[in-house]
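Input C-alpha cells:
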C-alpha cells in the first residue's frame, strides 16, 4: 500500500495525494467545486477502500450542501456536480514497471466515474453515490507525497485560486526548505488559471495571486508570500519566488476566529474594509449630530433675542 493511503485523517486534515494537488486542467472548477471534490475524496480515503477500482461511496446530501451553502436549494449543488463530472484533468505520475528506468507519464482523466443522486434531493435521507475513475487507483497506490487538507479551511474560502494555493502550500509544508522558485507557466497551471486569461503580470497579480494569498494568509494555518522575478530591471517577469511558513500565536487565533464567522462580508473583513467603513459611518454620524446641535443652539439664541 502507498505511503499516502496509509496515512490517517487527523486534526491536521486528510492526506491528499500530491498527484491530485498538482494535477492540471482544473481551470473550469469554481471554489465550491473544489470544496466538494475534497469532501468526496476525503470520505473515500477514510473508508479504507480508496485503492479498490470497483468501490462506490455514499454521502448524505445535507453534508455536502452545507459545505458550500446554508440554503436548502439544490440548484447550486447540481451545477457543481455537473462541472465535476465534465472536467478533464492531467495527472502526472511515475510508472515503476517500465523496465530498468521509471517513466514519467500523464493520465488524462475525469475526476469521478459517476454521480448517483436521490431523485428527491431535499428529502432528509437524500444521498449522493459516487465512484472514482479506474485509472486513478494505481496512481494513488504508488503515491508517496501528500498534503494535509482541512475541510473547514477549504470550505471557508471563496476563491478557487486561494484553495489551489492552500493545497500547494500544504504539500510543501513539511519540506526542509521553505522557499521555491516556480515558472510563471507552472504557477498558472497549478493554480488553475484559464489558458489565455490574465496574461499580463499586473492582471495575474491583481486577479489571481493577491486574492489567493489574502485568503491563505487570513484563513489557513499557513502564511505564504509570492514575489515576481525578472532577469533584470527591464525584463518581463518569467518566474515567481514562493515562500511559506506556519502561523503561530495571534495570527493563528485570528485565522481560526475568522473561519468560524459567516462567509457574508468575509472578503471585506479580510481586506480590512469593514472597520474603515464603520469609521466612515461614525464620522458621518458625528458630523450630522454636530450640525443638529448647532442648529438647536441657533434656534435657542434666536428665541432669546426675540424675547428681549
Amino acid at each position: 500500500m502507498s505511503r499516502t493511503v496509509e496515512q490517517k485523517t487527523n486534526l491536521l486534515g486528510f492526506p491528499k495525494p500530491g498527484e491530485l494537488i498538482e494535477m492540471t486542467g482544473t481551470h473550469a472548477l469554481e471554489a465550491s467545486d473544489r470544496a466538494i471534490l475534497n469532501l468526496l475524496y476525503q470520505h473515500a480515503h477514510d473508508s479504507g477502500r480508496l485503492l479498490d477500482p470497483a468501490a462506490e461511496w455514499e454521502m448524505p446530501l445535507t453534508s455536502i450542501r452545507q459545505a458550500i451553502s446554508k440554503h436548502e436549494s439544490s440548484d447550486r449543488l447540481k451545477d457543481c456536480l455537473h462541472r465535476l463530472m465534465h472536467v478533464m484533468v492531467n495527472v502526472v505520475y511515475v510508472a515503476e514497471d517500465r523496465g530498468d528506468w521509471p517513466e514519467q507519464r500523464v493520465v488524462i482523466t475525469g475526476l469521478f466515474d459517476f454521480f448517483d443522486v436521490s431523485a428527491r434531493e431535499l428529502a432528509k435521507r437524500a444521498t449522493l453515490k459516487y465512484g472514482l475513475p479506474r485509472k486513478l487507483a494505481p496512481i494513488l497506490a504508488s503515491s508517496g507525497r501528500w498534503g494535509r487538507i482541512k475541510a473547514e479551511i477549504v470550505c471557508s474560502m471563496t476563491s478557487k485560486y486561494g484553495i489551489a494555493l492552500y493545497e500547494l502550500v500544504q504539500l510543501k509544508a513539511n519540506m526542509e526548505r521553505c522557499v521555491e522558485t516556480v515558472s510563471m507557466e507552472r504557477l498558472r497551471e497549478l493554480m488553475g488559471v484559464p489558458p489565455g486569461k490574465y496574461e499580463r503580470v499586473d492582471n495575474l497579480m491583481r486577479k489571481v495571486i493577491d486574492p489567493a494569498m489574502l485568503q491563505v494568509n487570513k484563513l489557513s494555518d499557513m502564511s505564504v508570500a509570492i514575489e515576481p522575478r525578472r532577469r533584470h530591471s527591464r525584463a518581463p517577469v518569467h518566474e515567481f519566488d514562493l515562500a511559506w511558513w506556519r502561523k503561530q500565536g495571534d495570527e493563528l487565533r485570528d485565522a481560526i476566529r475568522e473561519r468560524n464567522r459567516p462567509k457574508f462580508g468575509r472578503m471585506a473583513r479580510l481586506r480590512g474594509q469593514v472597520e474603515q467603513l464603520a469609521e466612515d459611518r461614525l464620522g458621518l454620524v458625528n458630523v450630522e449630530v454636530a450640525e443638529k446641535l448647532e442648529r438647536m443652539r441657533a434656534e435657542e439664541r434666536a428665541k432669546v433675542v426675540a424675547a428681549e
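Residues 152-271 form a domain with the Arc Repressor Mutant, subunit A fold (CATH 1.10.10.10). The radius of gyration is 25 Å.
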